[in-house]
Design goal:
By secondary structure, the protein is mainly alpha-helical. It contains five helices and no strands. It has a domain of about 140 residues: Ferritin, core subunit, four-helix bundle (Ferritin, Up-down Bundle). It is globular and about 45 Å long.
C-alpha cells in the first residue's frame, strides 16, 4: 500500500514545477511584447530622422541660392566702387566723373548694408573682386582719356544690366527675408544708375 506521505510530497513537487513552467511562459510572452514595442519605436525614430534629413536638404538649397546671390552682389558692388575711384582720376568727361562719384557713394552704402546682413547671419562674403572683375579693373586702369571714357561707359552699362537682373531675381525668388528685402530696395537704385549711364552713352555718340 502506498505511503500517503510520499504521495503528498509528489503532489506538491508537481504543483511547484507547473507553477514555475507557467511563470516562464508568461515571462516569455511579456518579453516578446516588449521586443515588439522597441522595434516599433525604432521604426518611428528612423522615419523621423529621414524626415529631418529631407527638411535640412531643402533648407540648404534655399540657403545656397541666397548665398550665391549675396556673393555675386558683393563682388559686383566692390567692383563698381573700385572702377568709380579709377574713373574719378582717369575720366576726361565731367558727366562721367559725376557718375563715377555716384557709384562710389551709392554702391559703397549698398556694400556696407550687405556686409551687415551677412555678419548677422554669419555668412562669409568676398571683400575683394574675383579674378574676372579684377582683370576688368586692371584693363580699364591701363587706359586714359577718351579711350578710358568709352571703355568705362561700356563696362557700366553691361555691369548694371547684370546687377539689375540679379537684384530683380532675388527680390522675386529669394528665400532669405533680409536678402530679399535688400535686393528689392537696391534694384530701383541700380535701374536709376543704368538709365543715367545709358543717357551719357547716347550723348557721346
Amino acid at each position: 500500500m502506498a505511503n500517503p506521505f510520499n504521495f503528498n510530497i509528489m503532489k506538491k513537487i508537481n504543483l511547484f514545477l507547473f507553477a514555475g513552467l507557467l511563470a516562464g511562459i508568461l515571462q516569455a510572452c511579456h518579453g516578446s511584447k516588449n521586443s515588439g514595442t522597441t522595434d516599433s519605436t525604432s521604426t518611428v525614430t528612423k522615419t523621423t530622422d529621414s524626415t529631418k534629413v529631407v527638411t535640412t536638404d531643402t533648407s540648404k538649397m534655399n540657403s545656397n541660392a541666397d548665398s550665391t546671390f549675396a556673393k555675386k552682389a558683393a563682388i559686383g558692388g566692390i567692383t563698381e566702387v573700385a572702377l568709380g575711384k579709377v574713373a574719378l582720376t582717369k575720366a576726361s568727361n565731367t558727366k562721367i566723373r559725376d557718375f563715377a562719384h555716384m557709384m562710389v557713394v551709392d554702391h559703397g552704402k549698398a556694400n556696407d548694408e550687405l556686409m551687415g546682413i551677412a555678419k548677422k547671419k554669419n555668412m562669409s562674403l568676398p571683400t575683394v573682386p574675383d579674378v574676372e572683375h579684377q582683370a576688368k579693373i586692371d584693363s580699364l586702369t591701363a587706359l586714359s582719356g577718351v579711350d578710358f571714357d568709352k571703355a568705362y561707359i561700356n563696362a557700366m552699362v553691361e555691369g548694371h544690366q547684370k546687377t539689375l537682373s540679379l537684384m530683380q531675381d532675388e527680390a522675386s525668388n529669394g528665400k532669405d527675408a533680409d536678402l530679399k528685402a535688400f535686393a528689392a530696395k537696391t534694384a530701383p537704385v541700380v535701374q536709376m544708375h543704368l538709365n543715367a549711364i545709358n543717357k551719357i552713352q547716347s550723348n557721346m555718340k
